[in-house]
Amino acid sequence: MSNPEAPDLTFDGMAVGDVLVDSTVTVTVESIAEFRRSISTDVEASDASDEGYAPPTMAAMWTVPRVMFREWNVPVGGIHARQRWQCARPIRAGSALRIRISLKEKYVRKDRPWVVFESRLSDSDSAEVACGEMTVVWPV
Amino acid sequence: MAGMTAELQIPSELPPLSWTLTQEQINAYAEVAGASDPIHVDPEFARETPLGGTIGQGFLLFAVMAEQITRGLNHPETWMSDGVLDVRFRAPARPGDRLTMRAVRTVEDPTPEGDAATYEVWCEGPDGQRLIDGTTDIPLGAFD
Asked: Is A108 contained in some domain?
């Protein structure tokens, strides 16, 4: 759930280039197991998941919403329209990930506000782990 | 890389993955990731919206799609090191929907010149409608 104590994240309040999140999250054995359970389809996980790797999109689908919803009061009703994700290296338990989320684009199309968030994740050596873009029809 | 690609067996399709999306899974993902917009987890709220009921999180479906892709690879860690997944969300997936993730090569070329194979990926709903579609680039080393 979005944090009601955090600042409101609004379309008008965001500007292209704004860094909305710059935070560090540590991926643990427990968080990997918890995430894997939540996306389980009751079939065997890939071999890599059994070798201590986090599921491939855990960086995006676990860390990004966690920090976004913790640091901002995000309005409900947004529509996730597009997602791009590029992996740069596997994530293992114990990894401390630096997450930077910024506003890449903001525009109005057919009277609806759209935003594109860019996420960049790096490890403790500052090596890039993954990056992505999420396009959202912003709630009005 | 070109010499290696000639010997690789690059499948025309990765094994599909089918499962039934449940409200419990949506709730579990909301709890874990904090993605708990009421359109996902509050049936009473969702019933009053134009969608008429709860829907699965795009993040959740994206994560399952990536699992389906990596499960079909000999070296999934290679995709985790250089893979790309790019999709558009076309229509919502609802609790109770039987969903199928599929990945089919876009070009039947046994010796691609690049260092990755491109697959068309999609999430099929119960009536065959594509709820999500896009592409993934898979490094050839994943098939070695």
From this structure: yes
